[in-house]
């Protein structure tokens, strides 16, 4: 079977199922496991690589308002790859090629490849996508084994968190300029890690916030996991926090508990590494209860960052 992935998370799911050799094409954003960087790229983006958070937000809103896609397929490359299975998504209009474009392309390709759409909004939904892809690729039992292993790790975190003497007020932000609350599976991760997310609700979309809303929550821990941004890219956006009234007075800022994490590799990528995200989050909320597993990156802590 020849498989094309139109999502970084789908690429990771495919590889976790032992299907690396069947993977023949990926997106321009796929970067894990390392070898996928060398595979043919079947997508392009209209987002400039050096755009600021504010510029990206404006571009996204403009394109969505006009029903125009931010990503597009490289159809000639896709035709050359002759896929039997295309794994894509219908969850977010911002994050990938539009569902209609994928469906249209599949109809025009020789052999009419099967298209599998992934739409997880919860952690359980993410686990279900591994089973869906496994079933479509003929490795359903392997999918079940991978899910069982991931669920075991989640249960271990939840058990340790249950012994926490208190749950800090947490605010997980998925964007900074403008600020966005966390959404979908992220509030679940906060709860499992032993925190009390102040704005985001499990299974719901993230939403634009005002800085007044952010300050009003008086968070004891702030986690900044900008969607699609590495730690280094997120740190470049930090100056915006210096413009926020009362930022320096927040408990999280006074206590040095403002953390920057890799939103691209972890929190905004609904694949197997969401469990890594949970373990990272649990460690920064309750380091005495949750040791950071070997191989996971330590978070970037902004000690004493204020206006």
Show the helix and strand layout.
Elements: E1 3-5, H1 8-16, E2 23-25, E3 43-45, H2 53-65, E4 71-73, H3 75-81, E5 85-89, H4 99-108, E6 114-118, H5 123-136, H6 140-161, E7 169-176, E8 179-181, H7 186-192, E9 196-197, H8 211-216, E10 221-224, H9 231-235, H10 251-254, E11 258-260, H11 263-267, H12 274-285, E12 300-301
Parallel strand pairs: 1-2, 1-5, 5-6, 7-9, 7-10, 10-11
Antiparallel strand pairs: 3-4, 7-8, 11-12
Helix pairs in contact: 5-6, 6-12
How would you briefly describe this protein structure?
This protein has 307 residues and is of the alpha/beta class.
Largest sheet features? 6 strands, mixed
* Mean pLDDT across every amino acid position: 92
CATH architecture of the largest domain: 3-Layer(aba) Sandwich
| Rounded radius of gyration (Å) | 20 Å
Identify the CATH class of the largest domain.
Answer: Alpha Beta
Structure description:
This protein is of the alpha/beta class. The protein has 2 domains: 3-119, Rossmann fold (3-Layer(aba) Sandwich); 165-301, 3-Layer(aba) Sandwich (Rossmann fold). Helices cover 37% and strands 14% of the residues. It contains 12 helices and 12 strands. It has helices at 8-16, 53-65, 75-81, 99-108, 123-136, 140-161, 186-192, 211-216, 231-235, 251-254, 263-267, 274-285, and strands spanning 3-5, 23-25, 43-45, 71-73, 85-89, 114-118, 169-176, 179-181, 196-197, 221-224, 258-260, 300-301. Strands 7, 8, 9, 10, 11 and 12 form a 6-stranded mixed β-sheet that branches. Strands 2-1-5-6 form a 4-stranded parallel β-sheet, sandwiched between helices. Strand 1 (3-5), helix 1 (8-16) and strand 2 (23-25) form a beta-alpha-beta unit. Helix 5 packs antiparallel against helix 6 and helix 6 packs parallel to helix 12.
């Amino acid at each position: 079977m020849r498989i094309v992935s139109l999502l970084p998370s789908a690429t990771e799911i495919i590889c976790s199922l032992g299907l690396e050799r069947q993977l023949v094409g990926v997106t321009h954003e796929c970067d894990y496991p390392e070898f996928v960087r060398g595979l043919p790229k079947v997508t392009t983006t209209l987002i400039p690589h050096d755009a600021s958070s504010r510029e990206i937000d404006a571009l996204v809103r403009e394109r969505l308002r006009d029903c125009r896609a931010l990503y597009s397929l490289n159809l000639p490359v896709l035709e050359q790859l002759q896929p039997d299975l295309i794994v894509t998504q219908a969850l977010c209009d911002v994050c990938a090629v539009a569902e209609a474009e994928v469906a249209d392309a599949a109809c025009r390709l020789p052999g009419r490849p099967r298209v599998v759409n992934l739409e997880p909004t919860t952690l359980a939904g993410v686990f279900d996508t591994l089973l869906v892809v496994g079933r479509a690729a003929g490795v359903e039992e392997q999918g079940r084994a991978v899910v069982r292993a991931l669920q075991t790790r989640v249960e271990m975190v939840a058990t340790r968190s249950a012994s926490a003497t208190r749950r800090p007020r947490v605010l997980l932000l998925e964007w900074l300029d403008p600020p966005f609350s966390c959404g979908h599976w992220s509030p679940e991760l906060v709860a499992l890690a032993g925190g009390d997310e102040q704005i985001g609700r499990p299974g719901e979309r993230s939403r634009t916030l005002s800085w007044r809303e952010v300050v009003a929550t008086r968070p004891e821990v702030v986690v900044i996991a900008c969607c699609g941004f590495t730690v280094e890219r997120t740190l470049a956006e930090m100056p915006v926090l210096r413009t926020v009234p009362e930022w320096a007075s927040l408990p999280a800022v006074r206590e040095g508990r403002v953390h920057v994490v890799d939103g691209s590799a972890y929190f905004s990528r609904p694949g197997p590494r969401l469990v890594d995200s949970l373990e990272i989050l649990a460690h920064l909320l309750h380091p005495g209860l949750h040791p950071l597993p070997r191989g996971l990156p330590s978070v970037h802590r902004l000690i004493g960052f204020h206006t």
